[in-house]
Write a structure and sequence with these properties.
mainly alpha
Length: 404
């Protein structure tokens, strides 16, 4: 009698993940369908419909992401204090859902800024508690798989969203405002899914460790290894500005308006396909090497995007950008969870995202200024330079981490 085939490490990891991780992943996917449907068209809407400058696009994107980062610090610390993370996660998703109708209603850049602000505050409120909840729901041996799955489903949503944008742009004859209304539906479905299908683990429900939400001593307790991880994550973010510039680059090299969202489709398809395998690999392989691989991919992507003179090169650059995200985002989240004390896990994710948000604000402003003054090629060459700096910092982090 033939023995049953043993499941591979990848499928075994998936089967071992609890239902709450899958619900969080599918919730992220639905919200990303909504967000990316809008964001794949938003730079074109701001520049082409509202007449916004590229510098302003960079400022709007940067301030929005920095706002989310600040919110993550307080929501992460609050989730540690309450011992309950689900309420904050659901509230953050609900705020983002209610912001979605503001985009198609916008008649000026001020409206867009308000909508982005509300959307990113919602992201900030949910981000750190959600990442901490993922770690609460699984054993340390499955953290890479759990974060990889969440990133994979999130990225799958980021593939579906721009594809829907392409479909509805054709259906509504390039009426961007009409297409944005479609994004409202999956946003509210996210809230319903999380309310019904995500449960707090027993430790979070007990509330035994409730304490003041944030003290200076707590920051010191996070430890040297954690702060090196947070610093490397910030430099990674500085090297990778908003995908809005990827969209604008696609249009710049000749992609027709109705097909511009394909740039995000390509990027997020490669991200989605590789995020879970990369996360599972992070449970077994050296983290520093995986992060260096991700930086090499980003440098190559930036160089191709700088040199691109036709749509195909731009799409190859977008694919490499997605591979970089797959090899870095879930792994960095795992490293934060591994290096932070259990009682401060939400706070740790909050500060990690704060540093990343500040770096993204700087990166977007720099990218917008470089593009406006010197053109697209210099913008992406600047990104390659920051990625090289991140690689040097990563080598230094490895040595310091071993000494810590």
């Amino acid at each position: 009698m033939t023995a049953p085939a043993r499941p591979s490490a990848l499928t075994a990891g998936l089967r071992a993940l609890p239902a709450g991780i899958w619900a969080l992943g599918f919730g992220s996917m639905l919200m990303d369908i909504s967000s990316e449907l809008i964001h794949s068209l938003l730079p074109l809407f701001m520049v082409g419909v509202l007449g916004t400058s590229l510098m302003t696009v960079g400022i709007v994107e940067g301030v929005a992401e920095a706002t989310a980062a600040f919110a993550k610090v307080f929501s992460g610390a609050l989730s540690d204090y309450l011992g309950q993370r689900k309420r904050l996660v659901v509230f953050g998703y609900a705020l983002a859902a209610f912001s979605k109708p503001l985009f198609p209603l916008a008649t000026s850049i001020d409206w867009v800024f308000a909508a982005r602000f509300a959307d990113r505050v919602g992201k900030g409120i949910r981000g750190a508690p959600r990442d901490a909840l993922v770690a609460d729901l699984v054993t340390p041996a499955l953290r890479g798989a759990a974060y990889g799955l969440r990133q994979a489903l999130d990225s799958l949503g980021a593939v579906i969203g721009p594809l829907l944008a392409l479909l509805f742009m054709a259906w509504f004859a390039n009426d961007i405002e009409a297409v944005m209304w479609v994004a409202v539906i999956p946003a509210f479905l996210t809230v319903v899914l999380l309310l019904r299908c995500v449960q707090e683990p027993a430790r979070a429900e007990s509330g035994k460790d409730a304490r003041p939400p944030l003290r200076l001593g707590d920051v010191r307790r996070l430890g040297r290894a954690y702060w090196w991880v947070a610093g490397i994550g910030a430099v990674f973010t500085l090297a990778r500005f908003s995908e809005a510039f990827l969209i604008l680059r696609a249009e710049d090299v000749g992609v027709p308006l109705g097909l511009v969202p394909l740039a995000l489709v390509v990027m997020n398809l490669f991200y989605a396909l590789c995020a879970y395998p990369a996360g599972r690999a992070a449970d077994r392989l050296d983290a520093r090497r995986l992060l260096l691989v991700s930086l090499a991919l980003l440098i190559l992507a930036d160089l191709l995007l700088a040199a691109a003179d036709d749509p195909w090169l731009a799409f190859v650059g977008a694919a490499l950008w997605g591979l970089h995200m797959a090899f870095s985002q879930g792994l960095l989240a795992k490293l934060v969870a591994d290096s932070a004390p259990l009682a401060l896990r939400g706070t740790a994710f909050g500060f990690f995202n704060l540093l990343g948000g500040l770096a993204l604000l700087a990166a977007n402003v720099i990218a917008g200024a470089l593009w406006q003054q010197f053109g697209a090629a210099v913008t992406f060459l600047g990104g390659a330079a920051f990625a090289t700096l991140a690689a040097l910092g990563l080598l230094a982090w490895d040595g310091r981490a071993r000494a810590a």
